[in-house]
Structures
1.
Amino acid sequence: VSYRILIVDDSPVSRKMVRRAVQMSGLEVGDIIEAGNGQEALAALADSWVDVVLADINMPVMNGIEMVAEMIKRDFMAATPVVIISSEQAKERVQALKAMGVSAYLPKPFRPEQIKEVVGGLLRAKKGAES
Amino acid sequence: VSDAPSTDQLALIAEQLLAQAAFVFAELSQEELSDADTMHVARVSIKGEEAWQLTLAVQTNLGRELAGNLLGIEETSDEAGDASADAVGEMANILAGALAAEFHGPEGPCRIGIPTLTLDSGAKIQAALAAAERKASFTTENGSRLAVFLTPEGTS
């Protein structure tokens, strides 16, 4: 089984950095799809199944927090794990995001091993729940 | 007394992050930027109890190097050229996050904005740098120039 991952960031460079880290991780990843903001991400999630979302916070049109809030409202998206990858490190914001149901928070700059550890853990948990 | 990082803190954080995130090794420099230099410039707001703007300006060839190193591609490639301005924006974003933590500590509420990107002359950046209270100017091991400075928001 290979998993589908959605990367959400307005910076193409940042999306490529995350994509590269995921591809280097050795995880069983199939398609990696990209969105430039929360609104595009919601459209992608409505269009096809995604196993994990890796999203920035600060984006135009719809930011990462608004995207998570919208995902919670939609039954078929509410259980999709979201990992926030952001340069914002304020503890109150991290706690608020986790209270909303965000699975994990990675500060930028991240190391590829951190992506492997966090995404790998989420995919293993998902595999365990499905078997 | 402002909570903004001092010039020494700004210089140290910028030097460390450039090396850690983008493998760019730079030393403080007093040499002035000139009109002959063309700079990729990224500006990011940092808002806590005070509102500041971070400016990161790098020579265009260093923008290519940043893109190449961040993406693991040849800096001479077309892809690195296309990504160079965005790479400077991403580097400014990372730097703003580290400075925001320095402003108020991990417990304090602080928001950073979305980078705005421009291409400016070295002389224009040098004038802004001269007026900034908190600033650092560097030369990389390859001889490229970059500058980073903080200004109260709305003044630059």
2.
Amino acid sequence: VETRLHIPDHSGLAIVIVALLAAAGFLLYVWRVRGAVGRRDQAALVALRLVAVLGVVVAFLQVSVRREEVVRRKSVVPVLVDESASMGVIGAAGRTRAEQVSRFFADHRGWIEDVERVHDVRYYAFSDRVRRVTRPAIETGWAPEGGATDLAGAIEAAARDAGPGEIGGVLLFTDGIDNGRLSHGAEPARGAAQAGHATLADLSGPVHAFVPEPAERVQDVSLSRVEGLGYLLARNLAEVRCEVRAAGYDAGELSVTVSSWGEELARASVAVSEAARGATVVLTFLPREPGRIVLDVAVSPLPGEATLLNNRHKVVVDVVRDRLRVLHVAGHPSWDERFLREYFQQRPDTEPISFHTLRAPDAPVATPDDETTLIPFPAEEIFVRRVDGFDLVVFQDYDLPEVDRDRFAQGVSRYVLDGGALLVFGGSFSLGTRGAWPARLDSVLPVSGPKSPGHGMVEGRFAAEVTPEGARHPATADPRIAELMERAPPLTAVNPVGGLDPGAAVLVRVSPEGAPPAARAPVVVASAAGRGRVAMVLTDTLWRWAFDPVYAALYRRVVDGLVGFATRDPSFSPVRVVASKPDVLPGGEQVVTLTAAPGVTDVEARVQSEVEPGRFADALPVETLAGEAGSRELRFDVGDAGAWRVVGSGTIGAARVESADWFVVGPSREEVERALGPANAAGAVAAATGGEVHSMDRPALDDIELRSEILARLGVGADEPVWNHPLVFAILLVALALEWFVERKIGYT
Amino acid sequence: LTRRRFLAALGAAAAGVPLALLPRRAAGSDFNRFRVAQVVVGDRPAARPTAALVLGQEVRFRTAVDVKLDRVVVPLGSRAIFDYPFLLWVGDGAFPDLTPAELEALRSFLGAGGFILVDNAGEGPAMAAFDRQLRAQLRRAFPARSLDPVASNHVLMRAFYRVTQVAGRRSAKPVIEGLALEHRLALLYSMNDLSGAWSRDGFGNWEFEAVPGGPAQRESAIRLGVNAVLYALLLDYKDEQAHVEYLLKRRRLRLEDVDR
């Protein structure tokens, strides 16, 4: 129990008025008696008046004696250990910064135990978030993998955990490379000073920072800047510019690569001597398909590097399609060609490039070339050299040129197998109707040739219908297609084909009007071929729908679906997953939206991490979407650094469909880029709180001052007023009476 | 369905080629091959009855278009016009006002992507009467559109041949007019009796002299007809960059020849 004088609350104005009046009255009295009486009498009168004034003031302030119950306890000393990725940088004596922390705790166990005896010591590891740890764990050490460093956030969290005013001091073990709120860019010191007013200045104890010793000679190779990865255009040459820096090495060769899923897309070399001055390396490659990809830009490591963090830049990149570049090749001008051409011209997102054979080689009327506008067909250019530049290749009633057919077929097949999109429309000039089946394209076509080629198309009146498989297929799942097709004008010619390839799906079939169901034949077939997709329309009479004001919509929907399927348009995927953040710090939260179209069942999402380049394993339990269709938001905390993917899948009939999205887990760019930078923030934080910075190798432990105890007031035992004590009035009366008596005695009136 | 066809269907299905034995096989789809169909209005007989066939023949002989050579005449107001996206309308005199059904068919046909080549084959007052009535009916069908001269550098003039002279059996008007819908010419109108230049008699001889240019003028008329067919089938194909670049570089095409 503690006893102390207590003055109840008065308004400030009242206290000021009373104080001024008391002082004025007292000074007036002093002025009056000055020179009127002897020095000794003057002193006696002033003293007596002072006692009287004080008595009045005490009475006014209502002073009391307060007895309080208080508790004195150990102050809280948070020990904050930085576990951000930059603590993995190798420092003095070949030890990482994290190893230096562990070694400090092992070497100074006695001092720490002394601190524990006097204070309530709590251990935390922090990066961009804070977690409790134990001293033995710190002594043992762990791999620092935190994605960012937020010193102020860590101190604030520890202070909050301790409670207001409980902090006796903070022991902060860090490399001082902050990229949290103290930094706000490039100036940690200024940030700390500003934040000191808020977080640090409110701290009830000093922050003593312990920083690791740097290596005497830093050796490092880094990608200091990587540009050109904001977004890439599909089938446009992508150019990635990297600045490679090398420090502490004299000679050697560095390889810079850009790869995706373990497949190297581009490689360049740079000499260490050039990198010492900062060399710019340009890597070019061709992103083939639109969508998200994870690109890994890396520079080869050299022995003894301080850190490998900055040798690699892994990033999720959106490959977007500016416009759908369509190569439209037709064997001859026809209505089917004309309406498809008009379809592509009307789509605002396409850029068709057409080559149509306008003159038959055996045309009876020959005209000098100068009088026509015919141009040679650049087969070599478009089928071999530039085919990769197209998002979609359309063959319409077209067979590859006889001369060099093998090479051209090889070019087209490779284009498809590498991820290209091929749309083949039949007709009376191609697909074995007048000659041989294009067997050289068999590796990518979803159907085989007719058993007896060369006998033309099959003519008649064919009613078309969407197959059950077609009703579930993204290209023709639109229910309006089936609805319109039921009443659509009949198709009048069909290309006969042989069998279907495994994996091929018949989306639309036809049957002659009045024929039994067994006479159905495929007319729209789709399949995947390697990484590409192929769709075939086995007729040249779809234009009859396009030219009908009622069924033009059916034509558009069918061709839209086929183009969307072949070019992997995400909007044609019945199941979609979208990760909200392309990159997440280790341990951070990711939000994924899983959406399923009507008719899709058993929808689930798998969150997977890359266990080796291109191979993924489930990292979290599988999440399912209740009901058939709809959307669900999944929230989860990610784990280790690396590439992650979310795979959404569902069932349509007997088929399983899926789509995927990607994100990268790893430290922030600031954490990586400043890993070797100066430890500005540690000193700034210590200075802002009255603490000091110590080297972990040579700490001045005796100089470290911490608030030893915290006084906590539990409650008021009693308040005994003194202002109304009779003694106060007695003293006041005696003082006034004595003053009156002395004045009379010395003759002062 | 006959028993034979039913059995054939079952057999074909079992063989995996279900349609192979069913309907007849043809090198080209007859329904799908290009035809020049002649359209008639009201009860007027088709003028220049051989012209459509000859134009089709010339297109077949000169280009890669797969043409079916038969004579087809369809009334403008019939649903049959939607089987033939290219129509030749030859007028040789006044014709009655289009009925509402004909007007609607004309609008639908052209709006859906069809193409009509209108040829004024009339002489003197008959020519003027057809011209007047055609323009009046087009104004009724497309009040916001008009027939405008087709520029000499329009892609129509480069669709297959480089056409520099616009003429038919006669050379009454040095330009051809067109009605544009959504950036394409949907209707062409010639006052030069193109069909007269194309007409042959039963022995294959030219039915009329081309005046004043003779055979060269007839050849120009045929080339213009071929270009009209190719334009209907290819639209602005010859305006594509690859073609224009090549033609500018190799074929002495001048920039002013290209409407870009």
